[in-house]
Amino acid sequence: MQLLPGESKIATLANITLTTRRVQYEKSEWGSKKVTTIPLDHLTSCDIEAHSKPRWVVLGALAVVLALYTQWSVLWGLSILFVLAWLVTFQRSMVLRSASEKIEYAGSFGQWTAFQEFLQKVHVAKGNQESVAAGRHEEMLAALRASAVQPTAPSPREEIIKDVELRTAVPDPTSSVSREAPTIPAHTAFWITSSSTLHVSTSSSSAAPAMERGKSVPEETTSGVKPSLEFPASEKDTSADVASGSVFPNVSARASLTEIQIESPPLPNSEPPNLLANTVLTPGQSTAAYPPLTKSRKSRTRIVVFALGALAIAGLLGAVISVFRSHPADLFTPENRALVAAELQKWSESFRTGDTAAHVNCYAPVIETYFKMHQLPREQLFRDKQKAFASISVVIIYELSNIQLSPEPNNRIAATFQKEWDYSVNSGKGFLGSEIEKLTFENFSGEWKIVREEEIRIIRATRPQRDPVRLDERTATRAGAFRYAKYQSGYLAEELCSESSVSTSDHYCYPYGWRPWLKELERKVAGTEADTLDGDTGTQAPGNLVIWWNSEPRIVFSGCHPHDCPNAGAYFIVAARTRQMDIVWHNEKGVSYLGPNAALLRSYDGFTLLEQIERGDIDLK
User: Fold this and answer.
1) Cβ atoms within 10 A of the Cβ of 73, count?
2) How many CB atoms lie within 10 A of CB 480?
3) Is this prediction's pTM over 0.85?
4) What kind and span of H or E run contains 590?
5) DSSP SS3 for 393
């Protein structure tokens, strides 16, 4: 910035420069540059404005309330984003205005004090400039007083003085005669106000002429001509001309100097002028027609309105939430409790049988809490369960007891129970234990799904070492549709039979020593023929034969009728992981196939293949 002669720099704020004569702002953007200059005597107002968008704060408050109500973690993240959006949209700006130009500068959060200090310097600089002008006015007044002379006789100059008196007098409101409106001495007022608004708006702070702010007198006379005491441009001259009497050549010395009022502008830091101080009121006229100048409270009103609105919305939501929380048993009906119990049974049975799809289908699309994990998608849970189920060779025990259903907030139902488990993995290790567990169910389109699975307390947990029997389907011998292999020490003897019935030398497992779930499975498959089947299989053989017709290994047990083995007996084919049993039963009536794979075994002539393997007609490799 290049200074003018006699001009000095006072202060600088970013790209805004204040001198003793003007304010200049240089703004550079992509491909453009603009320089705005406002002289101090043309400066009319200075504002400090704060803009924000409170809608983001309201949305953030709503997100927090909903997060407390629904316990959704994603709502906490949204509330943080809403608050950040409010902080980003929060702006502070300084605006300097004249009648034709405007300088607007947007600052950062910490520049509010800098704005105030800069505007104070502008205020002082403008006041100093007006003080200089006031001194010149005082010199002119002194010159007029020195040159004033009393007139000796009436002259044409009295007519000019009278005309001035008529033009400056306040009209009588009761008079029907139209007179010109009085001219009130104009005071140059300049003060600074700062405002903070919650919405994008323009706060009012001005240094406009007091005549325009007050508007305490009519602007026009009945003839439509605006009153004025200003002299023509040709009569505006220096104080020397005034002293010599050349300005008023026809004015008599009888004119009193007190009738011509020359007002000096106020000094800096002075109060705004009283526009009615020098106004002469006629009898019966009051100052009620001239309202006092007051500062706008629009910004403060908006803050109060937004605060009250936010409190009202929060109170309404709180009332709704309290109503819902006070009635958590709306869906805790006998019908829903029965549905939850059925879903719980499906969940445990699918784990015992290794049905990954059915087990994972018991969960919600997104599980809020799965032990130590949160917001777990069901697809990821399926992959984890599928890998875990593939490593399990047999589930010996997976039982739920002491099941208690209770209502939960958000119309949910919780199931708390004691879980007992015992299973073996392919490496030969076991895993057994007991714990208190809690499952929380929520209704999704009429179906109750698990949204939370939590471990309340572990009672015990051990990992015993069991006899590892390595099964390798690729090395098995093929016999028709089957592949088979014999294990002299048996397979899953400890898992399928109780410990007291397992041979200590060979670890064989006989049907008479089966665990309860195997005995129940046999009677379930045989149905009404269960007792007859037991009579034909009194003499039993250990399960040391393993066959495959798909990827799952199956242990084969056999038994025959006492004293009539060749003519009556049965083969029990047990799929330990999926808990399936197929029975091939033969007696004098013929061969019967029972179980889920009866049709497959019949088509392969499973009885003949098993007989050949049992007699050793097929060479074992």
Assistant:
1) 12
2) 14
3) no
4) strand 590-594
5) strand
Residue with tokens 């439509």: 224
C-beta separation of 581 from 522 below 8 A: yes
Which of 3.30.110, 1.10.3470, 3.90.1200, 3.40.1420 would CATH assign to domain 473-615? 3.40.1420
- Quick check: do 334-462 and 473-615 share a fold? no
Mean pLDDT of the 349-354 span? 93
DSSP for 438-490, written as a single string: EEEEEEETTEEEEEEEEEEEEEEEE--B-------GGGSEEETTEEEEE-TT-
- Of 94-98, 204-208, 240-244, where does the model show the most confidence? 94-98
* Cα–Cα distance for residue pair 522/581, rounded to 1 Å: 7
Residue carrying the six token digits 């007198």: 217
Residues 322, 326, 327, CA angle at the centre, nearest 5°? 125
Q: What is the separation, in whole angstroms, between the first and last Cα of the chain? A: 102
The SS3 assignment for 376 reads strand
Residue 284: what residue type? G
Domain positions in the chain:
334-462, 473-615
How far apart (Å, rounded) are the C-alpha atoms in residues 177 and 266? 36
Cα 199 to the center of its chain, rounded Å: 21
Please choose, from the candidates 493, 360, 382, the residue with its C-alpha nearest in 3D space to the C-alpha of residue 430.
493
The pLDDT value recorded for residue 66 is 79
Which residues neighbour 81 within 8 Å (Cβ) at sequence distance 6 or greater?
Answer: none
**Token pair for 581:** 């049993």
Least confident of 98-102, 290-294, 321-325: 290-294
**Is the pLDDT confidence value at 416 over 80?**
yes
Q: Name the residue with tokens 């471990």.
A: 455
- Could you give the CA distance from residue 395 to residue 455 in angstroms, rounded to a whole number? 20
Contact 198, 257 (CB under 8 A): no
Of the candidates 90, 89, 67, 88, the residue with the CA atom closest to the CA atom of residue 78: 67
> How many other CB atoms are found less than 10 A from the CB of residue 503?
15
425, 393 Cβ separation under 8 angstroms: yes
Q: Are 60 and 86 in contact (CB under 8 A)?
A: yes
* CATH value of 334-462 in 3.40.470.10, 3.40.50.720, 3.10.450.50, 3.40.50.2300: 3.10.450.50
- Return d(Cα 451, Cα 328) in angstroms, integer: 17
Phi and psi based region of residue 269 (left: phi greater than 0; alpha: psi -120 to 50; beta: remaining): left
Average pLDDT, the chain: 75
Q: What's the angle, vertex CA 462, arms to CA 458 and CA 465, rounded to 5?
A: 165
